[in-house]
Amino acid sequence: MAAPTAPSLFVMHGAREAVASGAVHIEEQVTALEQAVTENPGLAFDLAKTIVESTCKAILSDRQATYDNRWDLPRLVKETCGRLQLVPVNLAAEGDVTESVRKTIRGLQTVIHGICELRNSHGFASHGKDPAFRQLDTVHALLVARAADAIVSFLYKMHRGEAGTAKSEALQYSNYPEYNRYIDEVNEPVRIFDLLYKPSEVLFHVDPQAYEEYLGTFEPDSTEEDS
User: Fold this and answer.
1) Closest residue by Cα to residue 73 from 120, 20, 139
2) Which of 62, 118, 145, 171 is at 20 to 30 A from 204, Cα to Cα?
3) Could you tell me how many helices (H) and strands (E) the chain has, helices first?
4) What is the mean predicted confidence (pLDDT) over 114-119?
5) In angstroms, how far is CA 7 from the centroid of its own chain?
6) Contacts of 207 (CB under 8 A, 6+ apart)
């Protein structure tokens, strides 16, 4: 009688929540990565990179944003983050909160670079390149798989608006004077006949969703750096 199969050491709880919320296209990849962590660590590095790539491309497509298949993973993640409301709207005016979130995102980019490097040096495709080659162990595959799980969960939750923050009903034009000044400085006034309107006011009233999305990526000190 064959011995029972040992249960998987790792479960991608965050990614599976994303699958349940609609990211069904990564379900097979998630299952494969959970198995690869213990059975084939080299393949786990490949799959971790692939899952993050698939998630980013799906988010960009959902948001009608174009992407280039030649982009590497760090570029994909950067473009995806640029399309998401990373800072709660009701906290976007607080520079320290915005900067803290941006530092965390920069750390995320460092993790992404590490995943890519491990995939290139110890991924499944690297096997057999050198007789002296030694594959990294399950503990390293777990590190990369958990990082990918956290990244996928974070990006998809932000995409689906699950940050639990106040939405556009709390958005008030007068609450963001620095952001409004920045919009007015980098855009020409809107002219209608002999009337001139501030770009910030036009954006706020004509397309509040776009106003809110750009607000989430606005760096409060950018105007000072550009001056």
Assistant:
1) 120
2) 62
3) 10, 2
4) 76
5) 30
6) none
> For every residue of 127-196, which 3-state class applies, written as one string?
CCCCCCCCCCCHHHHHHHHHHHHHHHHHHHHHHCCCCCCCCHHHCCHHHCHHHHHHHHHHCCCEEECCEE
- Residue with tokens 């007789």, as numbered in its chain: 131
Give me 28's structure tokens. Answer: 């097979």
**End-to-end Cα, the chain, rounded Å:** 76
Q: Which CATH class is domain 13-159?
A: mainly alpha
Q: Which two tokens stand for residue 4?
A: 């029972």
Tokens of 199: 């770009």
What are the domain boundaries of the chain?
13-159, 168-226
- For residue 115, what pLDDT band results from cuts at 50, 70 and 90? confident
Whether residue 107 has pLDDT greater than 50: yes
Q: Which residue is it, tokens 């002296």? A: 132
C-alpha span between 53 and 152 (Å, rounded): 9
Q: What is the pLDDT of residue 91?
A: 64
Query: CA 48: distance to chain centroid?
Result: 14
> What's the rounded Cα separation, in Å, for the pair 30 and 43?
12
Q: What is the per-residue pLDDT for 164?
A: 41
**Which amino acid is present at 162?**
E
